[in-house]
Amino acid sequence: MTPTLEQLAQRGNILMLVWGAALVFSMHAGFAFLEAGSVRKKNVVNALTKIVMDWSVSTLIYFAIGFPIAYGIHFYKPVAQIIGDADNFNFIHFFFLLTFAACIPAIISGGIAERAKFGTQVLAGGIFVGLIYPFYEALMWGRWSDQVGALFTHIGGAAFHDYAGSVVVHAMGGWLALPAIIILGARLGRYRSNGHSDPPPIHSIPYVALGSWFLMVGWFGFNVASAGKLSEISGLVAINSLMAMVGGVVAGALASKNDAVAMYNGALAGLVAVCAGSDKYHPLGAVVVGVVAGLIFVKAFTLINEKWRLDDVLGVWPLHGLGGAWGGIAAGIFGNVVFGGQGGVSFVSQLLGTLLCIAIALVGGFIVYGILNRTMGFRLGAKDELLGSDLTVHSSKAYPEEVF
Q: Do 20 and 221 touch, CB atoms closer than 8 A?
């Protein structure tokens, strides 16, 4: 039977989301290599393994619980009905949104690297992907977004706008990580009793660069495919993503005096921040958003690790937590017509929606990690931490021919 034009359009939407999902899926390789490069040799296998395990658990939990909570759509019926009702669209829509949801435990993983118990971390990630993240997702993108949008419009003059997840995904992940970092405490030997900060040397800058490139490339699927339909895909989103990314690189370089890790993280900070308003900004506005995000990362990374002494290994709270919050607020500034944007945004609504995310993440994070810490234990024993997770958790080494 020859498909109708409507069917062809729907299949085009499916193809676009497959493309976007594949790119965002590849970003999880970026998370893995970025963390593997940032830890010591004795924790490389653990870093690489956590991401694939978190992905697998997230897939099962989001399929069974998270996606139905967020969108009111479930797959507990015969396949023939699902295909007949939506021409496979709901299946691939789930896959695309799963790649976003699974970013939550992947983000958290980098902040608590080298001292968290494998099982406890995986379980916490599953709870977040199954309950806390989809609850906020339902408010801003999903089944309750119309009602919440109407409320925000009444208060601030426009609905909360987060085109591709600066707040919904990245701020949520970064602020969920902060309670975990606080509860865990610093790695052994990270801070000396005399007050001296002694950060362990990272394992591999080439791994950091490789992971960052995976993330940077995949981000164009993250942002562009958020259109959801082929007919609504936007070149503006792509160019704004690019401009914010390079703005973050330049800011990272200047603020850190050309530190390689700061430059790569500056790129990621720019991409985190641009997500929310990537469909609204003028490209020059996107550059400014990226520059500010890069500066935020460099300064806040020093603040949390050196001043507050909380030991956020990859800087996930500065990068995703603060960068995502800045992106949500920035959409209410640079998305306005006065700054060359398309308009239709409200600073008040953006601020309130961002603060709501932070509140949900902090409350949820402290409750979940607090309970798990008291029941299962959250931190590795001192001996296991000194030996490294590769040996004590996975019984392997990343470089078995080396003695270390």
A: yes
What does the angle CA 243 – CA 245 – CA 248 come to, to the nearest 5 degrees? Answer: 110
Q: Per-residue pLDDT tens for 144-186?
A: 999 999 999 999 999 999 999 999 999 999 999 999 999 999 9
Residue pLDDT, tens place only, 246-290: 999 999 999 999 999 999 999 999 999 999 999 999 999 999 999
CATH value at residue 95 = 1.10.3430.10
Domain total in the chain = 1
Q: Which amino acid is at 291?
A: V
In one-letter notation, the amino acid at residue 139 is: L
Question: Is residue 399 in a domain?
Answer: no
Q: What is the pLDDT of residues 289-304, one digit of tens each?
A: 999 999 999 999 999 9
Q: Under a CB-based contact definition with an 8 Å cutoff, are residues 200 and 32 in contact?
A: no
Query: Which two structure tokens, joined as six digits, stand for 187?
Result: 């790695």
**CA gap 175, 127 in Å, rounded:** 15
How does pLDDT run across 1-39, given as a tens digit for each residue? 677 888 788 888 899 999 999 999 999 999 999 999 999
Give a yes or no: residue 2 inside a domain. no
Q: Are 298 and 251 in contact (CB under 8 A)?
A: yes
pLDDT at 161: 98
Instruction: Count other Cβ atoms within 10 Å, centred on residue 392.
Output: 17
Residue ranges making up the domain that contains 222: 7-394
Distance separating alpha carbons of residues 369 and 150, to the nearest angstrom: 34
Rounded to an integer, what distance in angstroms lies between the CA atom of residue 332 and that of residue 281?
10
**What CA–CA distance (Å, rounded) separates 306 from 298?**
12
Scanning 187-282, the segments in alpha helix (DSSP H) are 205-224, 235-256, 260-274
Q: Which tokens go with 1?
A: 């039977």
Whether 163 maps to a domain, the answer reads yes
Residues 391, 383: Cα–Cα separation, whole Å: 11
State the DSSP H helix or E strand holding residue 96, giving kind and residue range, or none if neither: helix 89-101
- 400 located within any domain: no
Residue 228: CB atoms within 10 Å: 16
Give me the DSSP letters along 136-200: HHHHHTSTTHHHHHHHHHHHHSS----SS-IIIIIIHHHHHHHHHHHHH-PPTTSB-TTS-B-PP
Strand ranges (E), 33-87: none
Find the angle CA(376)-CA(382)-CA(387) to the nearest 5 degrees.
Answer: 110
- CA quadruple 269, 273, 275, 279: dihedral, nearest 10: -130
Smallest CA-to-CA distance from 17 within 84, 95, 79 is with 95
* Beta-carbon count within 10 A of 3 CB: 11
